[in-house]
Design brief:
Chain A contains 9 helices and 13 strands. Chain A is α/β, with parallel strands linked by helices. Chain A has an 8-stranded parallel sheet with strand order 1-13-11-9-2-3-4-5, sandwiched between helices. Chain A has a 3-stranded antiparallel sheet with strand order 6-8-7, covered by helices on one side. The chains are: A alpha/beta, B alpha/beta. At the A-B interface, strand 4, helix 4 and helix 5 of A face helix 5 and helix 6 of B.
C-alpha cells in the first residue's frame, strides 16, 4: 500500500522514476514561470534520453532539455521564452528536423488531456477541423449518434509522468493553489490528471491550513520533492521573478554556439550545487 | 499620400469592426489589436467585454500601463477566468470577435501561423498554434497583417493551421460550429473581404494613397474587386484622439517591422522613468 501520509523523496530518487523514452508533461505559465527546473536539471544530470515532452505553454524547461539532447519529440501549442523571444533550441531543432514536432493548439491539447483524465479514448471536438494540425496526425472525425453533426475525435493523450513546481504542498501531496492565479494556473492540474504518475516539486513542504485552497488532493500525487527555488532561473508567481540577468546574459548567449552550451551545462546543470 | 500613419489607419479600421456588446477574445502580445479594441470601447462600443490575461474587462485601458504593471489588470477588472474556462466559453459560442495576425493567408481565408517552408525543414517557424484554431468557433474573425506582399498573400499555404471559407462554408453547418470565419482582412494597403464567388477574397476598400494596381501586385493571387472600391473614410479627429488615449506610447507599432525599434525604445524609456 502506498504511504499516503508521506510521499517525500529526494530530487534524485524522484527523477529516477522517469524512464528513457518517457512521455513527460509539465505545466507553468507564462513561459518563464512555474517550471520544475531543478527536476529538469536532475534529469539531465542522470543522462535521461529520448523524452517525449508535453506542455501547453512550453518554455525554458523544454529549451534546456532540447539543448541537452534529451528530447525525441515535442507536443505543445507554444514553445518560446516569452518576453525573451523564441526558444533557440526549439527553433534549431525545427529547422534541422532533428526532433519530431507534434503541433497542438491550446484547444486540441486540452481536449486530448481531458479525455485522458477521464479515461476516455477520445474527445469530440469543434476546433481545428480541416487543418493540417488534424491531417498530419491522422485524427479522424465521427458523426454524433444523436444529432448527426460531424465532430473531430481528438485522441486521448496519456502521459507517463507529469512534474509540477508549486509554492506549497504537504508531505502527503495535497497541493495548494498559487497565491495569485495566472491565466493558465489550472492547466497544471489538467495535465497532471492525464498522467500515470505525478511528481510535485514544492518551495515549501508544510501543512495547508485551508482545505478550500487545495487544488489537487494527496491521492492524485505520487511523489513530493522539497525543491526550494526549484523554478530558477524561471520565476514562481508570488514567490520570485525570473532571473532575467542570468537568462539574457548567460543562458541565451550560450545557446548560440554548441560548445558554449556544453560549458553552460557543465557549470549550471552538472556543476550546480542544489539539494539532490 | 495621407499624413496619418499606417498604424493609425489600421488600428482605426480594425476598431470599426468591433460592435457594441461584443465579447472579444483578446490575446496577449497583439498591441495593435488591443489598441483597436480599446479605441472602439471608447467610441461606438462602450459595452464591449474582453479578456486581458484572464482578467475580464479591466477598467484600465492604457495598454502600456497594463503591460508594465502586472497588478493593474487585477485591481481594475470585474472577474477572472482561467484559460481553460475561456476556451469553454468560446466553444459554447460565447465569443463574438477575435483579431488574428497570420503569417500567410490564401484566397479562401485559410491561414498559416505555424511555419514557412516545408513543414519538415522550415526556413522559419513560429512559436506554435496557440489558439488559431478557434477560427471555427469565434463568431467573427478579423484577420490583419502588417505586411501586404506576395509572401503573405499566397495561393498555397506552407502549413494550413486554421480553415477559412473552404467548401463555401458548408462544413460549418455540418459541424454545427458558431463561427462564420474571417470576415475582413485589414492590411497597410487595403481592406479585403470574402464576398467574391466561391467565398474568395476580394478588394473591398483602399487605404488612403494606395491604388488598385498596387494592391493587386502586392497580392500573390488573382484578387477580385468589389463593384465600388474606394478609399476608407480617413480616421476622424475623435477616432485619432480615442486611439491616442488608449495607446499613448503607440505600443501598436511593435507589430510593424519598420516601426518596432522606435516603439521598443519608447517603452524602455517609459519603463525606466516609472
Amino acid at each position: 500500500m502506498v504511504d499516503q501520509a508521506n510521499k517525500l523523496k529526494s530530487l534524485s530518487e524522484a527523477a529516477s522514476l522517469v524512464d528513457d523514452g518517457a512521455r513527460i508533461g509539465f505545466g507553468g505559465q507564462p513561459a518563464l514561470s512555474r517550471r520544475p527546473m531543478s527536476f529538469v536539471r536532475e534529469l539531465i544530470r542522470q543522462g535521461r534520453r529520448d523524452l517525449h515532452v508535453f506542455n501547453m505553454i512550453g518554455g525554458l524547461e523544454i529549451d534546456l532539455l532540447l539543448g541537452a539532447g534529451a528530447v525525441a519529440s515535442t507536443h505543445c501549442s507554444y514553445v518560446g521564452l516569452g518576453d525573451l523571444g523564441q526558444s533557440p533550441h526549439f527553433q534549431a531543432a525545427a529547422r534541422a528536423g532533428s526532433v519530431e514536432i507534434e503541433e497542438f493548439s491550446e484547444f486540441t491539447l486540452v481536449a486530448s488531456l481531458r479525455a485522458a483524465g477521464m479515461d476516455l479514448p477520445f474527445m469530440p471536438w469543434k476546433t481545428a477541423w480541416g487543418s493540417e494540425v488534424v491531417s498530419r496526425q491522422g485524427w479522424k472525425t465521427i458523426t454524433c449518434p444523436y444529432t448527426g453533426v460531424d465532430l473531430l475525435a481528438v485522441p486521448a493523450t496519456g502521459l507517463d509522468v507529469v512534474v509540477l513546481q508549486v509554492s506549497r504542498c504537504d508531505a502527503a501531496g495535497n497541493v495548494e493553489l498559487p497565491a495569485t492565479l495566472e491565466l493558465s494556473y489550472d492547466f497544471d492540474y489538467l495535465i497532471a490528471r492525464a498522467a500515470a504518475r505525478v511528481v510535485v516539486c514544492a518551495e515549501r513542504v508544510e501543512p495547508i491550513a485551508d482545505p478550500t485552497r487545495v487544488a489537487m488532493i494527496a491521492r492524485e500525487v505520487d511523489c513530493v520533492v522539497h525543491a526550494p527555488h526549484g523554478a530558477w532561473p524561471c520565476g514562481l508567481g508570488g514567490e520570485y521573478s525570473p532571473d532575467i540577468e542570468h537568462l539574457a546574459e548567460t543562458y541565451l548567449p550560450a545557446t548560440r554556439v554548441p560548445s558554449d552550451f556544453l560549458d553552460y551545462l557543465r557549470e549550471h546543470v552538472h556543476g550546480r550545487d542544489e539539494p539532490r | 499620400m495621407s499624413t496619418v500613419g499606417v498604424d493609425v489607419l489600421m488600428a482605426v479600421a480594425m476598431a470599426r469592426e468591433v460592435r457594441d456588446g461584443d465579447f472579444v477574445s483578446h490575446g496577449s502580445a497583439v498591441p495593435l489589436a488591443g489598441a483597436a479594441l480599446m479605441t472602439a470601447k471608447a467610441l461606438h462600443a462602450p459595452h464591449v467585454d474582453f479578456f486581458y490575461d484572464g482578467w475580464v474587462t479591466p477598467g484600465e485601458t492604457d495598454l502600456a500601463a497594463l503591460a508594465l504593471d502586472p497588478g493593474l489588470a487585477r485591481r481594475s477588472a470585474i472577474a477572472f477566468l482561467s484559460q481553460a474556462q475561456i476556451m469553454e466559453l468560446e466553444l459554447r459560442g460565447g465569443c463574438d470577435l477575435q483579431f488574428l495576425r497570420p503569417a500567410q493567408i490564401d484566397p479562401l481565408g485559410n491561414v498559416n501561423v505555424s511555419s514557412i517552408g516545408p513543414p519538415e525543414h522550415p526556413s522559419r517557424r513560429f512559436h506554435g498554434i496557440a489558439v488559431a484554431d478557434a477560427m471555427t468557433i469565434v463568431r467573427r474573425i478579423c484577420l490583419y497583417v502588417t505586411e501586404h506582399t506576395p509572401r503573405v498573400f499566397v495561393e498555397r499555404l506552407d502549413f494550413l493551421t486554421g480553415v477559412g471559407h473552404a467548401e463555401e462554408d458548408r462544413w460549418r453547418e455540418r459541424l454545427g460550429v458558431t463561427g462564420t470565419g474571417p470576415q475582413l482582412v485589414v492590411t497597410p494597403l487595403a481592406l479585403l473581404d470574402f464576398a467574391a464567388p466561391g467565398s474568395r477574397m476580394r478588394l473591398r476598400a483602399l487605404m488612403p494613397g494606395a491604388s488598385v494596381e498596387q494592391v493587386r501586385e502586392a497580392t500573390g493571387f488573382e484578387l477580385a474587386l468589389a463593384p465600388d472600391v474606394a478609399e476608407i473614410d480617413i480616421p476622424s479627429r475623435e477616432e485619432i484622439a480615442a486611439l491616442e488615449a488608449a495607446d499613448p506610447l503607440a505600443t501598436r507599432q511593435l507589430e510593424f517591422r519598420e516601426l518596432r525599434a522606435g516603439a521598443q525604445a519608447r517603452l524602455a524609456a517609459h519603463a525606466a522613468r516609472s
